[in-house]
Every structure is written in structure tokens, then in C-alpha cells.
Amino acid sequence: MRFLLLLVLPLFVRGESPKMFGYVASPNFPQGYPENVDQSWELRVPSGFAIHLTLVHLDIEMSEGCSFDALNVSTDDELLATLCGEKDYEALRVEVNPKLQSQFGSLTLSFRSDYSNPKRHIGFSAYYTAVDIDECEETATCSHDCNNYIGGYYCSCQPEYFLQEDNSTCSVNCSGQIFTSLSGSVSSPILNGHYPENSACVYQLEVDEGFQLIIGFTGIFDIEGEDGNCIDQLRIRAKNQIFGPFCGKVAPQPIKTNSHVAEILFNTNGYGTNTGWTLDYKTNAKTCPNVVTANSVMKPDQKVYQYKDIVTVTCSKGFEIVKNGVTKFQFESKCQKNGEWSNVEICQAVECGEPNDMENAITDFNETTYKATVRYKCNDYYELSSNNTSDTFCSADGTWVTNGIESELPICIPVCGKSNLMSSVQRIFGGKKANEGNIPWQVFFMEPRGGGSLISDQWVLTAAHVAEAETLKMYAGRINTNGPEGVELHAAEKIIHPNYEIHSSKPQYNYDNDIALIKLDEKVKLGPQISPICLPKNKQSDELQNGKIGLIAGWGVTEERRLAQDLMYAEIPVENMDFCKSVKPKSSKVKPEKFIFTENMFCAGMSGTDSCQGDSGGAFAVPDMNTDDYHIEGIISWGIGCGSYGVYTKVANYLGWIEDTMLQNQD
Length: 667
Ligand SMILES: *[C@@H]1O[C@H](CO)[C@@H](O)[C@H](O)[C@H]1NC(C)=O
Ligand SMILES: *[C@@H]1O[C@H](CO)[C@@H](O)[C@H](O)[C@H]1NC(C)=O
Ligand SMILES: *[C@@H]1O[C@H](CO)[C@@H](O)[C@H](O)[C@H]1NC(C)=O
Ligand SMILES: *[C@@H]1O[C@H](CO)[C@@H](O)[C@H](O)[C@H]1NC(C)=O
Ligand SMILES: *[C@@H]1O[C@H](CO)[C@@H](O)[C@H](O)[C@H]1NC(C)=O
Ligand SMILES: *[C@@H]1O[C@H](CO)[C@@H](O)[C@H](O)[C@H]1NC(C)=O
Prior knowledge:
Ca(2+) 3 binds at residues 224, 232. It is found in: Secreted. Residues 428-663 form the Peptidase S1 domain. 6% of the residues lie in helices and 39% in strands. The chain is built from 6 helices and 54 strands. The chain binds 2-acetamido-2-deoxy-beta-D-glucopyranose (NAG) (6 copies).
């Protein structure tokens, strides 16, 4: 039983520790092997060695294909030989043994016999030895040189290369270099005309903060790969940005890194004969923005400002720096290494403040800073004093400027000379009742009975002999002497022409300079029924040629020989003074030859149409040829009698006096 059991179990000799040599033989050698053997041997030698098996005896039952009894020799699952039959030592030596070598450190023998052996066979015997493997020939992966030794090998590298930690790859130590000067050049390592394989080069560029690296490629450029499919590659890393990978034969465009630190990474694989690359780097000082602050100019004026540049910033015209209540216009700023300007201040628009209100106008403005505009719009019945008046601007000095004149406002002056009478073509001789607005400048003097003319909203022009009365009671806008239309005017000042001779005795013969100005205590509100008449345009008026028609009005004595209740008006021509001189007085007390005629007077009238007592002080109004606006050429002054010709004060002669007087007495 014991024997049988042995036969059934296959016998394995496994896990034997490696030996440099050993002996192995079939069971029961040399007495002959038993039936039903199934045994294997795993022969092992130290690593770095192969096993060579040398059969000394071989006597195994011969069968077709060794199908009965057989010895298999295999290594790493590769069957080296299936043996049976009988071979002498010489045959074994020549035919069999040379085949029996393992690739590595183990060799497996399997021996099997069947149940019947007609003849006794002694089996096999063999010894094995460890033989050196030449790994350099077989398996070694040295990137450069391979060196075999008994039981192993080692890799070694050519000059300039060193062996990496995998003990087989040779590469160049191209890392660790740091470039700190402001410009320079870096090249790939070159050995034997090309860059080394298996390299991972890292070059550091590190210049002062405040500078920026610009990398250009001027020399050779030849890296394995093309069109972005890089086998070897050059990359540049700066500020979390990677430029590349670059390869091929076309050098990349210059690279602005915007950084003062960059890493040049060059990786190569195991093969290739490309030449490599050279780069030149330079530095730009970091640039600052072209504008330190808005609304300013910088000196010096440069296209580019860089680290350490200093500029003087001056606010543009109309802008200023206000800080802690202090105003200034300039500051110095320095381009810092972070690319920002130092101590930036803000140039803000100059403030003009609220514009003054203007009398008789609406003030329209939206802003009050430099270049802001104020638009004054005169109320109805007023107009701007000069027709070139433009808007008022906030100037760079912080003042409001009109027509180039600082702090000056345009003035709204009353529109003058407007009458709602039909055009002067419709000449009506003889007194006619006036309607409201026909003669809006007409002032009714209730005391003394007479007339006057508004020449502004605060001045009345009348005859001196009217104004000389002690009390004055005046109305503007009045048509009927009993009212109620119009407003009462109150004199603040009364200025009689200084050359007018005041007479106490009647009749008065000298009416030279019969002109007076009355300043009202307040401005009269203008409207369709009350508005001034224009002054004559100039002193040398040619308006008073004979035949020139003027409009006269008043509440004076009419043909019916009594004072009128309604305002009457008439249009009369200027006539030669002789007409006035030749009028016959009605009263014998009046001595016509005693009357004084001067250049300050003119004569106007016609038979049946004249001014008379009670009309004194009113205007002889002439419409402008172009505009139809009435201007006052004369003041009804005196006459030798009523009903034909009267004498008028020639207002043009007093234009200077009127303007000066009004100016000197303005509020
Ligand atoms: C030897 O190898 C052959 C072919 O693989 C196989 O048929 C035979 O059974 C093997 N003999 C032994 C003893 O392992
Ligand atoms: C390289 O060789 C050293 C010493 O010869 C050994 O300690 C190390 O394990 C080896 N490295 C590799 C990756 O085989
Ligand atoms: C590579 O060079 C750097 C400096 O040049 C050195 O510190 C480093 O040890 C070197 N490495 C090898 C593996 O030689
Ligand atoms: C103020 O703003 C209004 C509305 O935009 C505009 O109509 C007006 O002309 C402005 N006034 C000035 C003086 O610019
Ligand atoms: C107003 O303008 C006209 C033409 O533009 C000019 O002839 C006239 O003299 C101006 N008048 C004043 C008062 O500026
Ligand atoms: C506008 O009128 C003023 C006087 O009112 C004068 O000094 C100025 O020169 C005039 N400007 C123009 C552009 O006519």
C-alpha cells in the first residue's frame, strides 16, 4: 500500500535554494527507474546566472514522440527538449547538451515513466552549473554603455551624463542654473552636435522685481517634433502661465512674460539628433499706465513709463486737486515696481458755484463745474443787452464768464419801441384816439398835466418844464385820464438838464435844454401796455430831415379847446424851423421875437395837427426804417400857439447826458 501510494503521487522538488551547481538523476539511478514515475525538478541558480544542464546518462524507454517514458527539459515554459531513448556520452555532448540552457536562473526537468517496461532502463543523470548571463547582450536597457560581470551587469554613461536613479538611463545635469542678470542667453546642452536625450532641463530666469522678462529666439532652433506634436519640447513657465510646448525648426515669436521670474523647461526623450536651441532674454522695466489720473498732463511726456520713472502730473485746465481744504494743481508720481503709480491724486473739475440769478430772466443750468453752461433766458418784454451774448460758462478759474468777461452776466434789458399801431405807412393826420398798447411808453402826468416817455423800466424822459413842478403824479399804461388802467409811478429822483434855465415869470421865452430824467423808485413791470421807447441810435441823427414823420401823443388841449380825457395821437412831419417862428401868437402879451431858437430844438407839425398845452414832455417818436421800432427823437416842448407847428427838444443832442445820468444813478 505504501508503495502504491508513492507511485500515484507526483513528486516535486520545489523551492530549493539556488545553488551554483548540482546533480540530478532519475529515481533509482542507475538500477533502473520504476514504473509510473511522474517527477519534476526545478533547478535554481542565483540571479544574474543561467543554468546549463549536462546530461551524462540517458537511457529511457524509446517510444514514438517519447509518448511512453520521457524527460522534458524546459525553461520559463519553453520546452527545450523532450528526451527518450539511449544516447552515449558523445552523442549527448554534441547533440543534446548544447540545447539545455536556461534563459534565466531556473530550469525545470519533468520525468515520467509508464506502467510497463519490457526492458530495464537505467534512466538519466545530469549535473548542472550556473553560467553567467550576458545581460548586455540579452536584456539590459542601458541608455548608454552596458557592462556585464559574472552574475550581473551595470550601466555606465558617457562623459557629461550621469546615471539616473533607475540605474539605466543616462542624462545630462542641465538643471539648477539660475540667471539673474538683466539680459543673457540660455542654450540647450549640446553634446556631439545635438542635444542630449532623456533630459529634463530646468533653467531659472530671475531678475529684479520691477522688470519683465522678454524671451526671444535668435540662434538655432531645432527640436524633435513638429506642428505642436512635440516629441521633445521646450516650454516656458511664467506667472502661472505656460508658453509652449515648442518644437520643430521654426523658432517661436518673442515672448513677453510680464513677469520677472521664468522657468525654461526642456524635456527630451531617449532618441534624436536634433541640434537644440538658443534663446536670448532681455528685460523691460515694468511699465506703468500712460495716465496717472484723468484730466491731467504728465511731464515728461513719454510713450512708455517704466519702473523708477518720475513724472510731474499737472491737472488739465479747469481741473484741480482739493485735499483737506487745500487746492493744488500738481503732484509727483513714481512708477513703482508693481507697475502702479505712487500717490495718485484726483484732478476734479473746478467748481464755479451756483450762478447768480439775473433780473428779468430765467436761469437754466445743470452743472456748476468747469465748462458747465448757464443759459439765461430773458422774460417776455426783455431781451439780452447785446445780440452777441453767448451762454455763460464756468471758466477754468472757477468763475462764471460771459463773452470772455469774468464774473459778468448778460443783462436783460426791456424791449423798446414796440407799438401795436399799424405800420407807419398808414399815416393819419389829426388827432386820433389811442388804444391800449398803441403807445406803451406814454407816461401820463396828472400833476402837472403833461406827458413823458418810459425809456427803460425805471426811467422816464420828459420835458424840463414839466419835471420842474414840485409834485409829480404819474401813471404808466394809462389811456383814459380817469383810469383805472395802468400803474402809478413814483419818482425817486428828478434830474433836470443842468443847462435848462428855470423861469418863474410867464411867458417863458427860453426853452433851451428842455429835457429831464425821472428815476422811478422801483422798476415798473413791463407788459403789452407798458414798455419803453428806444433812445435814438446816435447823436448825429439824420432822422430829423424835413418831412420826416413822427408820432406824438398826449392828453393835451384839443381842437375843442379843452383837455382830452382819452389819449390822442397824431403823426406829423418835421418842418423847417421857420414854420415855427412864423406862428402868430394868440395872445398879445406874447412877444414872438423874444423866443429863443437853438440847435437843440426842431420844428414839426402841420396846419390842424399839433401838440398843445398838456402834451408837453411827450415823445416825438420815429419808427426805425428797418425794424419799425419807435425811438424818441423829440420831446414835446413849446409852441407859439397850438394847431399848426410846435417846437421839440432834439433828444439826439442829449444822448450822452441821458446815458451818463442813467449810469451814474443806477442802483
Ligand atoms: C513533455 O512535453 C510534451 C510536449 O509538451 C508532453 O506531451 C509530455 O507529456 C511531456 N512529458 C513530461 C514527462 O512532462
Ligand atoms: C540602483 O542601484 C543601487 C545600488 O547599486 C540600488 O540600491 C538601487 O536599488 C538600484 N535602483 C534601481 C531602480 O534598480
Ligand atoms: C546637477 O547640478 C546641480 C548644480 O549645478 C547640482 O546641485 C546637482 O547635484 C547636480 N545633480 C547631479 C545629479 O549631478
Ligand atoms: C439742462 O438739461 C436739460 C435736459 O437735459 C437740457 O434740455 C438743458 O438744455 C440743459 N441746460 C443747460 C444750460 O445745459
Ligand atoms: C447785432 O447783430 C447785427 C448783425 O449780426 C449787427 O449788425 C449789430 O451791430 C449787432 N448789434 C449789437 C448791439 O451788437
Ligand atoms: C460782444 O459784445 C461785447 C460788448 O457788449 C464786445 O466787447 C465783444 O467784443 C463782442 N463780441 C463779439 C464776438 O462780437
